[in-house]
Design a protein that fits this description.
Shape of chain C: globular
Number of domains of chain C: 2
CATH architecture of the largest domain in chain C: Roll
Number of helices of chain A: 12
Distance between the termini of chain A: 49 Å
Number of strands of chain A: 13
Strand content of chain A: 15-25%
Number of helices of chain C: 5
CATH architecture of the largest domain in chain A: 2-Layer Sandwich
Number of strands of chain C: 5
Low-confidence stretches of chain C: none
Strand order of the largest sheet of chain C: 2-1-5-3-4
Chains: A alpha+beta, B alpha+beta, C alpha+beta
Strand content of chain C: 15-25%
Largest sheet of chain C: 5 strands, mixed
Structural class of chain A: alpha+beta
Helix content of chain A: 25-40%
Largest sheet of chain A: 5 strands, antiparallel
Mean pLDDT of chain A: 96
Shape of chain A: globular
Oligomer: heterotrimer
Helix content of chain C: 25-40%
Amino acid sequence: MLPEFNLKRPLTLNEALSEYAAGSYKIIAGGTDMIVEMRKEKSIDFDILDISGIPKLKSIKKEGGKIIIGALSTFSDVFKNEIVQKEVPLLKEAVRNAGSLQIRNRGTIGGNICNASPAADSVPPLVALDAEVNLVSTKGQRTVKLDEFITRPYATNIKEGEILKSITFSPPVCTGYHFYKLGRREALAISRMNVAVMLNIKGGVIEDAVISPGSVMPFVGRVTEAEELLEGNKPSKELFEKAGLKVSGIMIKESGIRWSTEYKKPVIKEMVSRALNFAAGTEK
Amino acid sequence: MTEQRTLEPEKLTKGLATVSKPVKRLDAEDKVKGKPLFADDYDRPGILYAKQLYSKFPHAKIINIDITEAQDSPGVKGVITRDDIPGKHTYGNVIEDQRALADVKVRFLGDVVCVVAAKTKRQADAAVEKVKVEYEELPAVFDPREALKEGAPLLYEERKTNAQIPQKVRHGNVEKGFKESDLIIKKKFTTPFLEHSYIEPESAIAFIDQQGTIRIKGSFQNPFTAREVIAGFLSMGLDKIRVQKTVLGGTFGGKDELMSAIGCRLALLSLKTGCPVKTTYSRENSFLESHKRNPFYMDYKVGVTKDGILKAVESDIVVDSGVYCSMSPYIALRGIVQGAGPYRVENVCSDAVSVYTNNPYTGAMRGFGSPQTNVAIESIMDIIAQKLDIDPVKLRLKNALKKGDVAPTGQKINHEVGLTEALQKTAKKIGWKKKRKKYSKKQTGDYRKGVGIACCMRGISLGAEGVDAAAASVSVQSDGRVIVTTGITDHGQGSQTVMAQIAADILGISIDRITYLEPDTSLIPDSGPTVASRSTFMGGNATKDAALKVKKRMIKIVAELLESPEEYVLVSGGRFYDRKSPDLEISFDEAVKVCNNKAVPLFEYGWYSMPAIDWDEEKGVGEPYFTYVYSVNAAEVTVDTATGKVKVDNFVSAHDMGRAINPMQCYGQMFGGAAMGIGLALYEEVEVVEGVMKDRNFDTYTLPTACDVPDFQGIIVERPDPEGPFGAKSLGEPATEVVAPAVLNAVAQAIGRRIYDLPASLERVLLGKKLSKYKKKKKG
Amino acid sequence: MEKLKINFKLNGKQIRVECEPAKTLLDLIRDDLGLKGVKRGCEIGECGACTVIMNGEIVNSCMVLAPQVEGSDITTIEGLTSDESLHPIQTAFMEKGAVQCGFCIPGMILSAKVLLDNKPSPSGSEIRTAIAGNLCRCTGYKQIVDAIKYAAQLMKNE
């Protein structure tokens, strides 16, 4: 059973912002994380601002060369969207296997980002895409890079009164991409670890490489040291294995030795290497 | 003895309309329509909702329970604690140690100290928080091997030990057997706590009817057991308690002792308040309070000649029983009785003891001890096969029991044994020869494949575990329609359809004419618990007995009418006829009318009791079960050796079940059992750390989804048992017993390493050990 | 707590209710509106027993707050049977032995319906993916997958 609360359901963003500024609220969108969390509590000291009825936040569009994903777009919206399918198939692949279909039909990209779970499936690809989040409040708006927005597991630097409106990024320039998810099950699985990679190979040489893992580092972000190792080199299995090893090494440097390290150390190396091989078309 | 024992089963299914046919389930239409059938679907006016308060410590003395504030809480109509119990505090099938309400002590975190009933669920939730309990914490013990040691904290001081009732099997002389062996394998295995994971959580409602009878409707697997427990708790006669099971949303052995406890609490609250009282468990509380599959700690030693002839099996097993005994000693017994495999082993020495700990209690779960020991013996069979360079199927065929052999308990096998056929058919279906050979060559790359096989024997019904009898009634209505009831409960396996098929074919009528009523404890004799895969055999035989009695009576009247000798009169296709002159006939309906006019009763009780068995618990020898089902499973897997991920690509499940009364439902049992076994092999574990249950819902307790299991294949092997209804034995538990070892054997072939501790999680497959984020406290 | 007025369509019928906000769609349909075909299994969006169709998509009704259905179109298992005649998926489930205890079945059938509405001839693996959010402990899924394939045929022949 849920603890008791009052609920407001604004239908416009402005209405939502002024309500949010005036009361003591937590925001609910798709509800797939929020309801689970609330159910654990016997009572809560906040009310609920349900923004799921604001149509403006649900669109996916391309403007001025940039793709803008409304925060309320569900995983299924993203998966089915033509712009996403055509221009950012990496993102499409990443949301394909998040939770179950029931969850993908409700869970929103905005919610996934704001909840900031290290296992979130939409975050690594969006970080790989250098996405920015657009935040609004009654005081104005600001844009923050996603990897700065999420500060550590389950924490963001969202400010009081701010609502995540949309996520923006430029369509990637890449010749190949891959999203690798490892779960305990084939479906309905929480990512044990995941990684999004993109490669831009020109004339047989890697011009750009992006490696963005999830549930691996204590923060979200690209692993630039591993990316640099690739850039300017010819794609090869050996090279990708080195990149995997690098990511693994950085994981230990950043996270220290934890209960899961013994497993994660060899496995993230392999996941990164496999993902890069897929992206380069040299899949093993 | 009833007349069915003289029938020849092979001939029995010829020309029958429903038996051996994939008949649609009787309850399927209601279920696909989503009709309100389950316990939580029921309501009554003026209802109160009950909520229970759990223990705060894994082991503590209860000093005081203060309910004053809770009683005054809004909406509260009744509060019960240990002080309110009118009758017996304890119950239990083997040892009476379980308590619906904790009295002197709490022994685990799922013990219930107090229950409140209030007008709304929210009010009940709020009120229960206001109960103040004063505890004196006691030292606790969480490892059964520690609990056996001198000086370990005692769960029940009066017992002076945490050991329950030790079980043993003795056959031949193992020392001699090991001397005769060329190869001796010694290995240790463990299995974890598992949750039954019925998707319907526990639910029940209690109220008092106009006659003052306490009525309890709910998700009871074993209504008769519950009635007895509730009657004892309330100190009332069995006739004053009426337990009715609602449609069960799965149970697998799980909705048993906890349901009895829930029944006690609701009945008492209903008596106290005069109102109907209901409770439906949240998933988290269902996990917390219900029993689990027993973890087994197994030490095995097996001796074999260089030709692969098994010579000796020795095993020493410690079973974690948790805080209550439940069925653990019998689970231990089942484990060792079947724990030497379905083989001719001349020398067996097995010991198993279930032990109290402050963990959640454990008990019956589909398979009842043998899924655990099968992991050990069937893994060892493959180790032997590898060491002796004998094909695993051949090794099993060499040792497989046949009619006339002596089983590992010393029991002479006098029945037909379909094991060899099942082994051969399974091997063929999975493509054993080709695949085994192919995968035994050096594999390259990260993805490695393997095939594995495993087999077992399953003693059907209760056997040495208890008195075994069941009742049925068949009542032909004046319009020719028939009502069938048995004391057996349908958990979803489809037993009501099987009973109806049996009755329909004996009475020679269409199954559409049969209505099956689920048992109500006041309307049908105590038929024991619906456990141990005994439904078809016990309930089916009772149904058969009742239907035959009615038929016999009708034939007598029809024979007079047709002026035919009784032995010439047959019934099928809804008509009675003279087999010598088939034109002489009368419809079933007509016959019913005639019987009614002649005041011939067309109602009969049927009764069936299991043939005698002979098990000497002291010596560990004899015939623990009357007859056995023989099962073979094979799995083909792909292992990602870089991540430890196992995928079951193919799976074949074969069983000599005697006779498949309803093949469609039999496949349903096989496939469902296989999925549950894959969960046991690869995914499932309730992690319990210092008595604290870490997995309490389906987010971290990972059941196989539709994407995690293959397109199962099933094989029905029929060696009819003269004693079974139409030759049928059983299937429910066999379906899940050797899944895990088949998968583990396939994994072992794929990776060249063996997993000895379940589940074969990502970490175990990759690293050979479990990693846990939960730290255990340091001792001292 | 302040009650809210909610308007939505349930099985084709316009519904107006007043309800506490701290309720899920599952609570609303099952407890307040009495449609018991929606099952409570885990309440955290894992088991799928409470699956309903919301605006043409399956959702776990335990993961939707009641006020969030404002203006939506909801179909439950009760909405599938018109005039007592069965939907072909229901017929297929009965004939193929896809039903055992039946607790997961309403949700399972609704997931199958949305799949077949959008994809009349799904492959085995598409079916498995579509029902991966509906846990079943009894059947091992095989006869359910077979039933959905069979239902696809029945629906084409209609």
